[in-house]
Amino acid sequence: MKSNGGAGHTAALVVVLCVLLPGAVPAQHAAATITNPFQGRADVIDEGRSLFNQYCGHCHGTNAYQGERSRDLRRLNLRYGQQAPRVFYEVVSNGRLDKGMPVWKTVLSDEVLWQIFTFLETVQTPP
Ligand code: HEC
Q1: How many domains does the chain have?
Q2: Lower CB density within 10 Å: C or N end of the chain?
Q3: pLDDT (tens digit, 9 = 90+) per residue, 57-87?
Q4: How many angstroms separate the alpha carbon of residue 121 from the centre of ligand 1?
């Protein structure tokens, strides 16, 4: 009985390690596939739109209506296709300071950024 209990403990430890270890390298994995955690969530669109208008609208146009192509965020899918979520996340996180796009990583949470992206998905120019 006693030694069985010990084996049970070892097995439990192995299980715990297996669960914990993959979580130890999320950064690498995330870099390969950056995806919108709110994809398809209609319930965050309104919030995303209002966050967008609050933080981004004065440069990117109210509701993302914007004539200047380099900052027309309705063209993200056209420009970047499946890479759009990754490009969005990288540009918004790190900015393009030389071009006048601020850094948002320290200002807005990931949650807010992806809510904004979820809104932007609804206004993309069709291919
Ligand atoms: C101070 C003005 C300003 C604000 C505020 C601003 N941006 Fe930008 N953003 C720019 C400019 C200018 C560019 C174009 C950079 C370039 O020419 O490459 C840009 C580019 C981008 C791009 C890349 C577009 C592309 O097609 O490559 C994304 C994505 C973006 N902005 C998202 C946002 C989001 C989201 C917000 C709000 C959280 C925001 N921006 C707020 C000025 C701004």
Answers
A1: 2
A2: N
A3: 999 999 999 989 999 999 999 999 999 999 9
A4: 15
